[in-house]
Amino acid sequence: MVTRGPATPPATTDEPFHGTGAPNHESDAKAAGQDLRETQPDAVVTGDGMPGWRRTFIALIIAQTMSMVAFGMALPFLPLYVQTLGVSDEGDAIRWAGVMSTTGMLVMAAVAPFWGVMADRRGRKPMVARACFGGGLIVGAMALARTPLELFGLRTLQGGFSGTVAATRTLLTSVVPASQLGFTLGIMQTAVFVGNSFGPLLGGFISDAAGYKVSFLATGALLAISGIIVMVFVRENFTPPVAADANARHGWRDAVAMIERTPGLSAVIVTLFLVSAAQNAMGPVLPLFVKTLVADAHTQIASMAGLVLGITAVTSALAAGFGGRIGDRYGHGRMMAVCAIIGGILYIPQALVTSPFELLAWRGLLGLFTGGLMPGTMAIVALRTPSAHRGWVFGLTTTATALGNAAGPMAGAAAATTLGLRATFVVTGLILTIAGAWAAWSTGRTVRAATPTP
């Protein structure tokens, strides 16, 4: 039996750049011209008494975790995989990995708004399935690459067809009641971190035991399984948009107009770009840096690199579970600023380590702060965006994130090849500190603008 009821607005807001009063989700939704009962449908109750949105939520969390494990099993090891394809020089391997990561992210940035529009017009569930199956097929094919150029082509193609995080986030916000947005998005972010934790660990062990190609094949298989979970267990009651919304223009000028008229969205987008750039600057460098720290020739380098990559995600997952709650109480903008600035500072000691275990300790501490950067920012985007355009706007935030993901590896690779591997940590710390300063300035600006003149 299907039952519906109005979503109950929570008492606090998830607005990360709002610092006055005690605003609520209802006012945020009304600012976007929405009714909470229309924006976030309440639970469809199943035979066992579990609300339908909870079953879909659980299925999405499982599928998203598996997807992130899958990508983490293969993509972080591109610098080492390239060296097995005939690239012996360390600098050339860094450049190849940086170009591959950057190009893939640029393609993702270009196509993300298109996939967002398709989600608004055709449904969000098909877009999640597309990301899982498309990414699995292409990453699996990377195991067959014979040259760095072939690997580059597949990595570029993968950027256009994957994107499970954005697709899942868009679907989640369309089926979850508004009163549960902050909580569910925080749990999803934790799932991303958990996947990022176990992916490099599992991929490192597989690579050392069976080779990098097996890791890419396993990634393809795991992504296919996550796609099957979405197709079988996820339920979406999608209503096609009316003709006016379906035929609405979605060009870049329209995107700029949408950003300008959506309160707080421009600040979120800039912060997402800077944070993403900082978090991905170490991608092409960290595995090779770990290699320079390993004195014992018998040490399994891929496993150690996977451990270093994974520990940050583990501690980030622990922090993300509390990030949303802390942001609700003290303000997400303030929390983001503090976490980014402290995280930036914590990159500096990493440039001075002399052993993998020292690096492991600093990376674990770093994750406790970087894990608090993202929770809550997507909730405010969902609450301030009309449901008919939510996929498009999430596509725009994905574009900002992907551009940061593209700029980060290039900046990291450039710093490593010109200044040395250790200088990359300093560059990354500066980028993250700038992101924190921007978040703090944006928060203060919003507070001043919202304070009445006496």
Tally of separate helices: 20
How much strand?
under 5%
Order of helix and strand elements from N to C terminus: HHHHHHHHHHHHHHHHHHHH
Query: How many beta-strand segments?
Result: 0
Oligomer designation: single chain
Mean pLDDT rating = 77
CATH fold group: Growth Hormone, Chain: A
> What would CATH call the architecture?
Up-down Bundle
Q: Spans of 5+ residues with little confidence (pLDDT < 50)?
A: 1-49, 446-454
How far apart lie the N and C ends?
Answer: 55 Å
Based on CA inertia axes, which overall geometry fits?
A: globular
The residue fraction in helices comes out at: over 70%
- Structural class by secondary-structure content: mainly alpha
By CATH's scheme, which homologous superfamily applies? Answer: MFS general substrate transporter like domains
* Rg over alpha carbons: 21 Å
Number of domains: 1
* Main beta-sheet annotation: none
Name of the level-1 CATH class: Mainly Alpha
Structure report:
- This protein starts with 24 loop residues before the first helix and ends with a helix.
- It has a single domain (31-237, 247-450), classed as Growth Hormone, Chain: A, CATH 1.20.1250.
- The chain is mostly helical and 454 residues long.
- The model is unreliable at 1-49 and 446-454 (pLDDT under 50).
- α6 (125-141) packs antiparallel against α8 (164-175), α6 runs antiparallel to α10 and α15 packs parallel to α17.
- The longest helix has 33 residues, at 90-122.
- The chain contains 20 helices and no strands.
